[in-house]
Structures
1.
Amino acid sequence: MKKFTRRQFIQTSTAAGVGVLGAPAILNAANKGDKLRVAFIGTGGINRRHITDTLDHGDICGAYCDVDSSRYTNIHEGIDGLEKSGNSWMAKQWKAAKPFQDYREMFDKAANSFDAVMIGTPDHSHYPATVMALEHGKHVFTQKPLTHTVWEARQLAEACDRYKLATQMGNHGHANEGNRQIAAYVQGGHLGDIKEIHCFTNRPVWPQGFVKPSGGDAVPATLDWQNWLDCAADRPFLGDRGLDAGRAKKRGGSYLPFNWRGWLDFGGGALADMACHTMDSIFMSLDPGFPTHVEALNVDTLTDSAFPKGSTLRWTFGPTANRPGFDVYWYDGTDNAYTDKNGKPRRHERLEEIAQGETLANSGNIYIGTKNTLLVTGDYGDSSRIIPSESHRALAMELKEKTGDHRPARVYEPSIGHHTEFREAAIGNKPYDYPGSNFKYAGPFTETIQLGNVCLRHPGKKLAWDGPNLRFTNSNKANKLITKEYRKGWDFKLSKA
C-alpha cells in the first residue's frame, strides 16, 4: 500500500468526507461474513472492555496500537475470564494483527486490515485519532468525553451525517434501563415542568489543583513519549512525584497511567470525566439544545496546569415551544464532599436542602419539577425515585390504577447494548446513526460539558453562549478557549462538506 503523509491524505480527501485510503466500511457477508474487523488505539484502561466485547462477539482484531508496548504485551491483566498466557498476549490471541506505537503509522500501513476503530486514549488525543479514522472510512467508537474542546465536539457532530459511518461515544450508561426510566418520569409529565437539575460526583479521585513540578524524569523504555503527547506541546516526562498528597504515587505517576485527567493539557477534570455519564439523562429526556449561559459559581484552586480541587457550575437553558427554561448545576470535588468541623461527612448545602433528608450517595442527580422531585443515585441513572417517599408511593399507586404498572410508561425501547448498537451499524445491519450516542447526539452533549470547563477559568462571570455561531458574546478571552493549538504533525482536519 502506498504510504501517504498526513498532509497528503488531508489535501486529497474527497469532498464527500471519505479519505482516499478507504471507502465507507460496510461489511459484505459474501466476502467477510458477519465478523467485524477492529483496530484498537490504546490497549489498556477502558479499551480492555472493548477487547472483551470484541471477543464476546467473535470479532477480529486487525491491528492495535499503544504508545506503551508493555500495555499490549500484558493485556491479559484485568480482563475477566482470560487466562494468563505470558507476553505478547494480543499477538497470541489475534496472530495476524499488527502492533504499532503510532496510530498514524497504523493507518498508513495496516488500514486494509480493519473496518472499525476503538479509541481509548487520553482526552487530548481523541479528536486527532477520530479524524484519522473517519478520513480513512472507518467506523469509530471514541471514549468519553468525545473531545477535549468545544470546537472539536462541534466538528464531529457536523461530520456524522457527512461521513455516514457508524459512530458511538463510550458513555455506556446511555444504553442502561435507568436512563430510560428517568426519561419516562420527565417526558411523562410526572415531575411537572423541570425547574432545576443538580448533578454531583465524587470525582476527582486523581490529583487536581496542583502546581506543575519542575524538571523532568527518564522516559520508561517501553513508552513512546512523543506519541503519547500527540497534538499537545512538547514537555518533559514526569514520573512518580510531586502532585497531591500521595495520589500521584498511588495512581502510578504524574501523567501515567491515569493522572493525566487532572491536567488542563491532557484531560477534562472531574467534569469531562463523569458528566458524560451523570448528565446523560438530561440530554436523553429533555433534548435541551444550546445553553444560553454558563457560569462557574465557585472554583477551588484552579492553577495554570491543573483543573480545580472542586467546583460548582451552572448552565442555563432557555425555553422552547415544548417546555419552559431550566438550570443545570454541577458539583464536584470539595464542593460536593467535605467533612464539617464535627467530623461529619457533608454535601453541598444546596444538595442537602433539596434532598429533603434523604441520604445522598457519592454521585447522582436531583431533578426538581413543579410537581415532584426525582432523586437519582449513581452515575448511570440506575436508581431513581420520587422524594419524599410518600410522594413516590402515591404516584406509584396512581400509575398502577391507570396502567396496571407502577412505573411510568417507557419512551425509549430497550437497548441491545452500547457496543452491540455500534457493531450492528458497522456491519450494515442498522443505519449508520443507529447507535444511541452517535456523534450527532454525543457532539452537542460534549460541547455543553466542555463549555463548563471554559467557564472554570472565568469564575463569577456569567458567560453568554451563542450556540449557532460557536462563540461567547461577552468574553473574547473565553472565546480563545473554545479551541486549542495543535502540534505540527497532529493537526489533522476533517474534509469539508
2.
Amino acid sequence: MIADRWLVGMTSAAFTWAAISGDLGLAANDPSSFDLPNQRIGTPTIGSELAAPPSAGTNIPTSRNPLWAIPLDSLSATRQRPIFLPSRRAPAPAVAAAPRDPEKPASVPVEPDRPALNLMGVVIGTTDGFAVFLNVTTRDIIRLKLGEGHDGWILRSVKGREAVLEKNHQTAVIGLPTPEEVQK
C-alpha cells in the first residue's frame, strides 16, 4: 500500500513537473509521437508542436490540448483553493505585529553585603571549627562546620569570638554580641 502511494505520488509529481516546464508537449496527448528510446528529458519529440496558451494579438500555433486555450487569469479559483494544501484554503496573509514597547529589565534583587545571621557561639578544635548562628528572618538555629554554607555564604574560619563567611569573593566577619548588646 505504501508502494502504491509512492508510485502515484511520483507519477503525479513527474507529470506536474513536465507540465510546468513544458516538456510534455504533444507527447502527453498523442502517444504515437512519444518515442521512449529517443526521448531526452527537457527536449521535445520530433514533430511535436509545443505551444503556449494563445495570447491576444499573437499568432502562436495551438496545441491539441484543450487546456492551453484557457487563459491563466481565469483560473483564480486555483489560487483561492490550492490543490496541495490540506485545508484547500490559501494561507492567510502575514500580518506584522505591532511594535512592542521596550520592556524595562526585571530588577534583580540585590543581595545583602552581609548574611542575615547572628553568631550565637563558636567551637574551636585543633583541626575543625563550628559556628552556631541564628537566622534573623526565620529564627532558625543554623550549625555550620568549616567549608559548609548557608544561602551561598560559606564558613571559612572561626577564631575567638568571630566567624568569617565568604560569598562571591565578598567576606563578612560576624562576631559574638557583647554583654551590653545581649541585655538590649
3.
Amino acid sequence: MKSRSKLLKVGEVSEWLNVSRSTIYKWVHEGEFPEPVVLGQDDGKRSASRWKEDEVVDWLESRPRGVQE
C-alpha cells in the first residue's frame, strides 16, 4: 500500500521553513526543491500548487547541518 502524504500549501511550506513564498518557487525553478503537485488545470488561472509533506521532509533531512564554510 502506498503511503499517503499530506499536501501542503505554499504558505504552509514557507512558514514551516521560515522563508518567503517566492523563495520556495525560486528553489523549485532552480531544481533545488521538490516539484509541487498541480491541482486543477495547469494554466495558472484555475490551478493550485501543493507540496507532498514527505517530499519536503526528505529534502529537509538531506540538507547539510552545522556551520557551512
4.
Amino acid sequence: MKRREFLAVLPSSVVAAQLLAEESTTPEKITVGANDWPWWRGPNRNGIAPAQKIPLEWSATKNILWEAEVRGRGHGSAIVVSERVFLATAEPEKESQGVLCLDRASGKPLWHKEVHRGDFVKGGNTKASHASSTPACDGKKVFINFLNNGAVYTTALDLEGNRLWQQKITDYTLHQGFGSSPGVYGPLVLVSADNKGGNGMIVGLERAGGKIVWSRKRPKTPNYASPIVITIDGKDQLILTGCDLVTSLDPLTGKENWELKGSTTECVTSTVTDGKHVFTSGGYPRNHVAAVKADGSGVAWENKTRVYVPSMLIRDGHLFAVMDDGVAVCWKSDTGAELWKGRLGGTFSASPVMVGDDILATNEAGRTFIFKANPKEFDLVAENKLGDEVFATPTVCGGRIYMRVAIKQNGTRQEKLFCIGTK
C-alpha cells in the first residue's frame, strides 16, 4: 500500500497538514499502509480503527490465528507495519529492555533487540512495568521510549533491529512509573517526560538522526500522558494534558498556541477532539472529565467521573468512555449531558478501541466486552475471555486483533501476544 493510497483513507484536513509538514521539511516520507497500526492509538491517533470485519467471539482455542511468547513483563501495545509486528519488552530478572519483532502472518519471532541492560529504576506503582510505552514506526524506523538509569531515552531501530540512534530526553524522578509513547509527525518524533523532579520535558526529535529540534520545560509535577497531534479547523495541534494544564503546541516548532488550567495534576489518557473541544480526564488529586474549548478560551463543561487510565473515544458528537471501575458511559460532547451508563465489570487499564459500530474494552482480568457505539442506549453484544492479566490496549488492523496478555499457571507468569482472526 503506497503512502498516497494510505492518506486517501484519512480526513482531508489530516492529509493536507501531514503532506505539508512532510514535503516542506524532509525528504523522508512516512510509509505505512492502510491496514497498519503504526503508533499508539492507531493511524489517526484516536483509538478508532478503519471499518473492517473482525471476530466478535474468541477464546484461547477459538479464532486464534497464532500466539507468540513474549519475554518478561510489559504493558505497551503492539504496533503493526507492513509484514511486521513490534512490541516493547522488559525482563526484570535480567534488567533488560528491548524491542521484539514478529512476523505478521505467522507470529514467528524475527528478532529481539536489547536497548538497555541494567540500571532499572526501582519503585513506583505495582501496575507499572519497565516496558509500558508503545513503539511508533514511520515505515523505515521503529522508535521506542524507555526509563533507564534515572533518565528517559528515545531509541531508533531499523526494521532489522539495528540501532540507528539513541537520545537522552531528560532526567526523570520516578513517582508512579513511566509509559509515555513516542509520536511521529512529519520529520519529527514527539516525546514527553513529565515528572516531579523539575526536569519535565516535551521535545521534538529528528526522525533521521535523533537531534533535538525543539524542547519545552514542563511543571514540576508527575504526569503520564503521551503527546497526541489532533487537527482542528485545518490546523494540527500537539495536545498534552496534565500538570494541571491543557497545552497546545505547534508540533513542528514547539511554539505555544495556547495553554490553560483545565486538567488535574496526574493524567494518563490521550486526548480526542470533536472539532470544537479537546477532552481531558484524570484521577489525581481529583477525578474529572472536562471539555476544553479548542481555541483555549476556557472549559466548556466538566464532571467528576473517574476516567483516569483508559483513554476515551469520540464519534459524531458523542464521547464514549470506560471508567477505571468498569462502567461504560456516553456523553454529548458539546454539553456533557450523560446519555447512558452500562456496567461492564472489573478494573480497566487498557483503553477501548472502536471498530465500525463496535467498541472493544478489555479489563485487567482479560475479559473483553464489545458494545455498540450507540448514543441512544447501552448495547452489549459480546463478552470474551483471553488470558489472566491484561494491561495493554488491543491493536486492531487488517481484520485482526492483537492482544498482549499474561497467563498464570502453577505459580508462573507468561506473557503472550495473540493474533485473533478468522482463517
